[in-house]
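Table S2 (continued). Query chain:
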Amino acid sequence: MVKCMLHGRNNMIYLENANVSEVFSDFIIDVEFDNDLKQLTDDVYKLKDQYTSQGYSNVGGWQSPGFSPQSQVPESLSKLQWDVYEFVHTVIGRRFNKSISKEQIGWWTSINEKHCYNSIHHHGRTDVIAIAYIKAQPNSGDLVVSRNDGSTYTRLDDDNTYSIPANAGRLIVLPGHVWHYVNENNNNDDRISVSYNFYVQLKWNG
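Corresponding output:
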């Protein structure tokens, strides 16, 4: 048994009896999806032919305008929207015992050609975000999550970033307040993703 003597006292502190609590932690959920990636890719390129880039966080690439459940979009993208919603709704329900609103969903698509990237940003007061990669070759760039609390000013943690490679068929879910960016695409093929904003369903007392 490891003991720690308090200086100048007879008290003993037993390290085995110490309780360690991890508080205020964030999460990242990483899962594969098996929707038709070719059809999704084709349909995103169709959207690109219809809309000029909105340029939210994309640097050098193309981003669609924002869409909602009421938007008229290709069937493959509509299906992916609801598949992602059902997954997020389920995991948030199990983890936090809360529901995700079906009405308050926002999403958009991004195409990053070679040397294009997404600058660091967060999604404001969005509760949960998700990124679905539908086209991504090796060296297409990593999604990088950056810690942004007070610990970044201390020496306790050696690394304040966490990286996830962009792979086709990969869905990543995380809190909307977390800062993140996507590195430069160093592949000759486009990197294509669909991003989602989800909100916890409010409970009204009345």
